[in-house]
């Protein structure tokens, strides 16, 4: 079901809740810097997880989980790769790991999958119907995996998606605190202290601070790949307009800016990105629309040597109304492969009509 906000102009933007979307373009995601490995063979440290890489990373982490698994998901669809991960959650619970799954009510398959998990010892909960839980978040022992990957077969196997694995202890603690607060009170808007280290987490409506901060720090280059950039001239000074104005300011000060926006059927049919494209191209900002054979569902930026990975679309809903989690990671380890990934979308994209 496509939420009503998708067709209420450009004020909001929700994702199409479909099980099957067009397959992504056949562009291999660049590998991140090689990780060290634990004795169990698990990679450690921060790593980019582009396209179908998240599926294996989550499966490995669940198989090795020892103490606690916390999951917050917008959708749970009972098909394909999702079935395998749901089974792995059940396996972890049955061997004594505490497993908690918090889900939005968006997907019609969610109640059945939660019941299946409960039967295997998983603690489950739906979020408040007054709040949209838009997260795609896994906290597995001492690692966080978060980004744009929904629990759908298309997201895990076909879409152009980006998530990241984070093991910085301060960031993992912040994600854990946020999850525990929302688990205890799903309608709440937890206050998590701002972070100043090389890995910085942003939750709920604080995503705007993270986006604007990343753009403002750019001095040489700024790359954007975004599913939905729902700008409208009806809301000057609003959150999405602030992002647009920040991009235009970066371009004006000489930052090498390039923006790739999704061009899949749902986005095009609902004219989600048209306003932003018009504003950017009029100002001379280089813009490409991704190959419409792929769903570019990522919400990412590379600001010089900082990677920003998010589950939030650039829409009023994504930046204000929804629960969500984003993370900024300084350094080449994530920024370089993410920049190369965006460059691949750019090469295969087209100049807007």
- N-to-C terminal Cα separation, in Å? 29 Å
CATH-defined architecture of the largest domain: 2-Layer Sandwich
Shape: globular
**Annotation field: number of helices:** 11
State the CATH superfamily name of the largest domain.
Endonuclease Chain A
Biggest sheet architecture? 7 strands, mixed
Tell me about this structure.
With 353 residues, the protein is α/β, with parallel strands linked by helices. The protein has 2 domains: 15-184, Endonuclease Chain A (Endonuclease, Chain A, 2-Layer Sandwich); 199-348, Endonuclease Chain A (Endonuclease, Chain A), CATH 3.30.870.10. The chain contains 11 helices and 14 strands. The protein has helices spanning 53-64, 81-94, 110-119, 153-157, 169-184, 207-217, 239-252, 265-269, 274-282, 316-321, 332-348; strands at 47-50, 68-73, 98-103, 123-126, 136-140, 143-147, 162-166, 199-203, 221-226, 256-261, 287-289, 299-303, 306-310, 325-330. The strands form 2 sheets. The chain has a 7-stranded mixed sheet with strand order 1-7-6-5-2-3-4, sandwiched between helices. A 7-stranded mixed sheet has the order 8-14-13-12-9-10-11, with helices on both faces. Helix 1 runs parallel beside helix 2 (81-94) and helix 6 packs parallel to helix 7. It is globular.
């Amino acid at each position: 079901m496509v939420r009503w906000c998708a067709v209420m102009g450009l004020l909001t933007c929700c994702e199409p809740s479909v099980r099957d979307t067009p397959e992504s373009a056949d562009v291999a995601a660049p590998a991140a810097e090689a990780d060290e490995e634990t004795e169990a063979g698990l990679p450690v440290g921060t790593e980019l997880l582009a396209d179908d890489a998240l599926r294996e990373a989550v499966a490995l982490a669940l198989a090795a989980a020892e103490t606690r698994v916390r999951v917050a998901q917008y959708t749970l669809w009972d098909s394909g790769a999702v079935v395998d991960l749901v089974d792995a959650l059940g396996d972890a619970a049955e061997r004594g790991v505490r497993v908690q799954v918090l889900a939005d009510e968006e997907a019609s398959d969610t109640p059945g999958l939660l019941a299946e998990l409960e039967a295997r010892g998983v603690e489950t909960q739906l979020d408040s119907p007054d709040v949209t839980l838009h997260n795609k978040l896994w906290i597995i022992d001492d690692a966080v995996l978060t980004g744009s990957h929904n629990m759908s077969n298309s997201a895990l196997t076909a879409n152009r998606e980006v998530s990241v694995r984070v093991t910085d202890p301060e960031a993992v603690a912040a994600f854990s605190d946020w999850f525990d607060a929302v688990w205890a009170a799903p309608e709440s808007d937890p206050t998590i202290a701002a972070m100043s280290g090389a890995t910085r987490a942003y939750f709920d409506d604080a995503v705007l601070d993270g986006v604007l901060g990343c753009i403002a720090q750019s001095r040489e280059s700024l790359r954007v790949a975004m599913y939905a950039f729902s700008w409208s001239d009806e809301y000057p000074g609003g959150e999405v307009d602030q992002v647009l104005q920040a991009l235009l300011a970066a371009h004006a000060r000489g930052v090498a800016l390039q923006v790739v926006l999704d061009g899949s059927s749902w986005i095009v049919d609902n004219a989600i990105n048209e306003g932003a494209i018009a504003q950017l191209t009029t100002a001379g900002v280089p813009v490409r629309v991704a190959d419409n054979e792929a769903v570019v569902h990522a919400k990412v930026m590379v600001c010089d040597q900082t990677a920003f990975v998010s589950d939030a679309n650039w829409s009023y809903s994504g930046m204000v109304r929804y629960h969500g989690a984003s993370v900024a990671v300084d350094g080449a380890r994530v920024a370089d492969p993410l920049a190369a990934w965006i460059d691949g979308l750019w090469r295969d994209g087209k100049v807007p009509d």
